[in-house]
Design goal:
10% strand; 2 domains; 47% helix; 3-stranded mixed beta sheet; alpha/beta; 488 residues; 6PGD_dom2; Rossmann fold; Mannitol_DH/Oxidoreductase; 6-PGluconate_DH-like_C_sf; N-(1-d-carboxylethyl)-l-norvaline Dehydrogenase, domain 2; 5-stranded parallel beta sheet; globular
Length: 488
């Protein structure tokens, strides 16, 4: 059955679907970055509110700023912007059609339609999922990267920007001139302090072309921090076949685990949906929640995906079932990451490691090692290196974290131990690959990437451990290094 408004009532009886009148919904949110995560997480929370008869004036308008986003717009438009979510619980699969999105802005050079939509006074929240590496952060200083070509373009062409942030600024300029007020800018990406980082990017870019507007944005817009959590694999042939098993023809289904969490700072300048009525948490202390999740879950993904890639393990659940990699995660997380994480209401770091170990091990979640290992240059710097720095300051163990970095370096050499090729998997792949190949003879060459490691390579304790592990991986192999760590 082709997914559409007309066929909703004809779907198989076991498929949950919107009970609200989608034709009566009005927009309140523009969301930039309509990948699987948003549709399986934030859009689902809003859908659940709508199922209760609430938030009918908060429907989502999708948006994108890349050429590839237009293909996604067409896929979703053909099915009235709905998505089938398939929950992959080991106890049994279930499906639900989510209808909280009602439109998708045409993707055009200069982003005119996006700017026009965000300037509409009905839009009170502009949200983003643009990946950790999408905020134009200087890796070494963690400040705003004003020299990036996209940023330079937007600063000199503020009416025809390339970036989502330039488009937001152009829309806010129109809103200020029209007297329709600001909107809340809401990051939903895996960045610690994601709201503060979004503020930094938007205000800094605005200041390059219009300092007065930058001051207005800084004073009037709000940028709530948040923590988002749900494992959502990429959609491929397996997922497209799976949705058909439920009797639905959906060109963009989303599979997800049976766990979600959304922790949000309650800082919305133009109102918000009552997401807390469907399980989200509003708190003044997002940082503790996000630190636990980013360091243990996101950092843990890097701990296991790099050796998994080197050893030709295809899926994350396979890594956890591997006799060495699963044990490696539990030891590194329990002994080296946990000491740098504070408890949150209802959850200790130790209990969270157990939860994540179970979630990673879910065989129903066909999450590829390649997807998880993607963009290590952003993920290692954001998820692991801060933990290493804290552990060094505290004098707690770092050998497993140093081994994790050595495994990343070995992965970036571009071959698995069975001789197969690892295709480029990072925006900085050429640079990483060159450093990894140089590190075969001179392991220090990897740590000399100051844009990634800063002065961390100068720390004798970390550098000595890293160099020892990288040499062992080179001379004896990945499994020998993992065994040596596990028996240490």
């Amino acid at each position: 059955m082709k997914l559409s408004n007309e066929t909703l009532n004809d779907l198989p009886e076991n498929i949950a679907r919107p009970t609200y009148d989608r034709g009566a919904l009005t927009p309140g949110i523009v969301h930039i970055g309509l990948g699987n995560f948003h549709r399986g997480h934030q859009a689902w929370y809003l859908h659940r509110l709508m199922q209760q008869g609430l938030a009918q004036d908060w429907a989502i308008i999708g948006a994108g700023v890349r050429a590839g986003d237009e293909a996604q717009r067409k896929r979703l438009a053909a099915q009235d912007y709905m998505t089938t979510l398939i929950e992959l619980d080991p106890k049994g699969r279930s499906a639900e059609v989510v209808g909280s999105m009602i439109d998708f802005v045409p993707v055009e050079d200069g982003n005119g339609p996006l700017i026009e939509k965000m300037a509409d006074p009905a839009i009170r929240i502009v949200a983003l999922t643009v990946t950790e590496g999408g905020y134009y952060i200087d890796a070494a200083t963690k400040g705003f990267d004003a020299n990036h070509a996209d940023i330079q373009h937007d600063a000199t062409n503020p009416d025809t920007p390339r970036t989502a942030f330039g488009a937001m600024i152009a829309a806010l300029r129109q809103r200020r001139e029209a007297g329709t007020g600001p909107f809340t800018a809401q990051s939903c990406d895996n960045l610690q302090g994601n709201g503060a980082i979004l503020r930094q990017t938007v205000v800094s870019l605005a200041r390059m072309s219009d300092p007065e507007l930058a001051d207005w944005i800084d004073a009037n817009c709000t940028f709530p921090n948040s923590m988002v959590d749900c494992i959502v694999p990429a959609t491929g042939p397996k997922e497209l076949a799976l949705v058909k098993e439920f009797g639905i023809d959906d060109a963009a289904p989303v599979t997800h685990e049976n766990f979600r969490q959304w922790v949000i700072e309650d800082d919305f300048c133009a109102g918000r949906p009552d997401w807390d009525k469907v399980g989200a948490t509003f708190t003044d202390d997002v940082h503790a929640f996000e630190a636990m999740k980013i360091r243990i879950l996101n950092g843990g993904h890097q701990v296991i995906s790099n050796p998994g890639e080197i050893l030709s393990v295809e899926f994350i659940s396979g890594c956890m079932a591997h006799p060495l990699i699963g044990s490696f995660f539990r030891k590194v997380a329990g002994e080296e990451i946990v000491p740098q994480v504070h408890p949150v209401p209802g959850m200790t770091p130790e209990a969270y490691v157990d939860l994540i170990s179970s979630r990673f091990s879910n065989p129903e979640i066909v999450d590829t090692v390649r997807r998880v290992a993607f963009d290590g240059s952003s993920r290692h710097t954001g998820f692991l290196l801060p933990t290493i720095r804290d552990a060094l300051d505290a004098g707690t163990p770092i050998d497993g974290l140093a081994l994790t970095e050595a495994l990343w370096a070995r992965m970036c050499a571009g071959t698995r131990e069975d001789g197969s090729i690892i295709e480029p998997n990072d925006p900085q792949w050429d640079k990483l690959n060159a450093a990894a190949l140089a590190a075969r003879d001179d392991p220090q060459a990897w740590l000399e990437q100051r844009d990634l490691y800063g002065d961390l390579g100068d720390n004798a304790r970390f550098a000595e451990s890293f160099l020892r592990w990288l040499r062992m991986i080179r001379d004896e192999g990945t499994e020998a290094a993992l065994r040596a760590y596990l028996h240490s």
